[in-house]
Amino acid sequence: MKKFCLLLVISILLIVTLCACDFITNVTASDMEKFNTLLDVDYDGWTLSVSTTTGDVTLNNKFVVTKETEKNTIDYTLEKLNEISIDGNNEFKSTIRGSVTVVDGKIVSIDGEEANLDVEQLDEVSMVFKLNYFKNISLNSTTLSADVTNPSGFLGYEIDCHDMKLLAKYSDDFDYIKINYTNTDGSSVEIKYEFN
Amino acid sequence: MKKFGIGRLLSIVLILVLVANIFAFIDADVAFASSSDYYKGITASGGNALLGQLHDLITTTHKNYTTYSDCSDPSIVKRTDPGTNGNVMEFYSQADISSSWGGGHQGTWNREHVWCQSLSNGLWGKNGGGSDLAHIRPAESGLNSARGNNKYGEVSNGSEAYYEDALNNPVALGGYISDRVFEPLDKVKGDVARIVMYVYTHYNHYSRVYGTTNGSGSASYFGELNFTHIISAGSEKNAIAMLLRWNKLDPVDDIERARNDVIQSIQGNRNPFVDNQNYADMIWGDSSTPVVLQGLEINPDEITLNIGQSRKLEVVTSPVDADSRVTWESSDSSIATVSTTGVVTALSEGDVIITATSIENTSINALALVTVSKSSSGNTESEFVTITQSSFMLTTGYGFKTWSSGGIGGMAFIYGGSSAYPPTGMQFNCTQSSYYLASNIATPGAIKSVTANIVSGKTARPWKLLTSNTPYTEVAGKPSNGTDHGTQTVTETGVTWNVDGNDTYFALCYEQTGSGACFLESITIEYSNGTVIEQPEPNPTELVCTPAELTIKESEANIELIKDLLSVELIYDNDTREEVLDYTIEGFDPTVFEKQTLTITHSGLTTIVKVTVKQSDLPEPIVQKIQVNPTIVELKIGATETQLRSKLAVEAVYDDGTTKAITDYTIEGFDSSKSGEQTITIKHGDFTATAKITFVEENVLSKNAQAFVDATEEIANARGTRQKFDKINLAIQAYKKLSVAEKATIDVQEAYQTLESAISEYNIAVQTANQNSKTATENATKGVVKVISILGAIVYLIKHLL
């Protein structure tokens, strides 16, 4: 009986210790600040995947960006549902694939065809990792997960949604950042930025 | 050695699982404390000390400032404001309303700022106090709009404001509105009062409410709030009196107590006025006794003006802190007019009586005699303005306070005293080197002399007089501009500086060095009446309109009534203001029932006002006839009346040209037992219409037609979007196989209509799914990586391909 009790106490202490030392408690503002610097890393390329689920349908869009010395290439895959027509040959879903080349702010080719398109210069908005944007933060040397309490502040633009969650894997730079949230109409979104 | 049995091993595992779960349940963010624990640090028994302690408590425990999105999140609002059966409780009526977020549509709820954004002195919009769950309540959108930015108050004969459904049917009464004042129902008054007191206590800067900190909230959340910002009661005292009255009239109930617990679990703090209903009286009880107006005076009560001159009259109440709101009236507006703010403008020679009548008690008024002269040439009669302690807005401590008397005004760096040591007369202490009193509103004529008197029994002190022809402004230290008329020692018997020239502004500067307070009894300014001052005409520089927004009923939608509700003023380059009535308004369309921007123009200047016309119920139209479509119907033998009704569309036609579908009609002459043609009569009240029915033998459908009908019926059994697509597609393929004759049969036609409906419904769902995907992808491009040209290219792809 004594040995059993001793074993029990040791096991409890082990559980507590293991749980405690793997993750940082009392996450600080400077812990979060380092993720802002990881956003500034000059990645060789990245992939943006967006999955949107409305009811029982999920649509997936993907952009794979490859950076080269003098140009950037975007390989894209976009899904959309097709509307039904009584007169047409109906397909449930269309998948659009292709590749775009961008040089100095212009699209110079789309799917192999020449083009000369100025593209919209977007304001430089970016995610901001700030401690008070999150709660239930779980952080260790490779993983950050949290509930986002201020989606608009975190993403840097106005958004009306709820239950936003963040999961990021990193080392010296980001492996990926994954964000999930639910829109006010009940549809759900998953966004994943994967970095090369 | 004993072996370790399976039973013991299982016990250990179970205990370890239990321990792990215990850790999981601890919420690191907000520790829930009982209500009594929350207040254990409150030691003050009342007054400003209690107010300060409560401010510090509710701001320092406010750990999680919720967002505007949180306030519209049904999952949160169902917890803070639960109704029955999963609904939400609408704030003003306390009736159930669907919990779904309606985004402003009639019959759904949206976010009600109990303390309106536009009356928050610029402190909040969608954060801080503007998204505090203890403040924001769900209100039906139409009722929210009707309340608008009206202050709370008590009205008589107010029009009823209802929570209405999407079809404008009244659901529940929410309050009363009259003259830009909203009165909630008695059962909600206490809730309103306790929220207003919470907001006042929380979001006033700590220096204003005797606290020591604002907690962790952003500095921009805190500032200056007065109860009169949100309560219509004439004075701060009367506003407090009303809130204390409402607090007692509608005591705290279990709904509020439960709400307070939920608020704490989310944001960390509580509303103390819910937890202890006596706090309100303990803090404000002594200062809340309503001040009853006894009498009015106008200052000055006798003036002479030249044609074209203006002068502002002031009202002095007895007692001094009673409700000072009055209406002004001129006995002869051809001689002199008077504005709603008491500015008299002389138009032609003669005498006129100006009357100020109390709004609180219309049996109390005061009179002033205004004499308008043709010219002032050679007339050196003097006017006198006396400045005393009653001319000031004094609070505590020292600093700049404004004064106003006899149509002129200015500021003083003066001592406002404390609760223990109220100031004696106009008190200037020598611990600061910069005490002075000066004017920034000109005397109508040149200053001839300035006299100052010390309070009887107090020590004489040295003062210097400066005069100028430009307004004095607040400066650190003493003003030094203008003409120096020298330093004299002011005694209780008074000292006078005689002034030549045309200056119309003065500054009296305290010259005592070292220590020594000065208590001035009064300062009298003598100025020339009728002296022509060679000053340039002031130029209007700005046109302002109050209020900046208003909501009116459809029956009130006309320009004249809008003008009655507005106060439009010209601001001049000498900082004077003048109310104007002869302005133009453009851009108003009484048939538009959403917010519209109107342009107001006067003197070449423009400003805007935003007006919303609320559509009111139209009088009930009268039925003129009924009509039926189609008038010729084909049915199978044996068809039921129900099947007949499903084919008929019967409408009532009204005298306003509108129509409405009706179902409460009877059918006469219907007999489906034999083939052939029949005429049936449809009756609705006193109105009738006819239709012809042809009964045909039941056909047996062909194999292909039957397959099509079956495929269409099967669509309703689809589970999920993909199945629905497949089943609709099958039905379409089946339809394509039919001959012309098969397509003409009744059953196939009915099935085709079903198919069309299903396709339409499906396509709407597809559009929604595609739009959601496009929006989410567009938003995602705003996120990360500062490679702007790449993001622009992705945006291009989304716009053109999705």
Brief synopsis:
The complex is a heterodimer of chains A (196) and B (802). With 196 residues, chain A is of the alpha+beta class. Chain A is 19% helix and 47% strand.
Folded structure, characterized:
The complex is a heterodimer of chains A (196) and B (802). Chain A has 196 residues and is α+β, with helices and mostly antiparallel strands. Chain A has a domain at 45-118. Chain A is 19% helix and 47% strand. Chain A has helices at 2-22, 29-39, 151-155; strands at 45-54, 57-67, 72-81, 93-103, 106-110, 113-118, 134-139, 143-148, 161-170, 174-183, 188-195. An 11-stranded antiparallel beta sheet of chain A has the order 6-5-4-3-2-1-11-10-9-8-7, covered by helices on one side. In chain A, strand 4 and strand 5 form a beta hairpin. Chain A is extended, with a radius of gyration of 22 Å. Chain A starts with a helix and ends with a strand. Chain B is built from 18 helices and 42 strands. In chain B, strand 40 (666-668) and strand 41 form a beta hairpin. Residues 1-33, 376-380 and 531-535 of chain B have low confidence and may be disordered. Classes of the chains: A alpha+beta (196), B alpha+beta (802). The interface between A and B is large, with 75 and 64 residues.
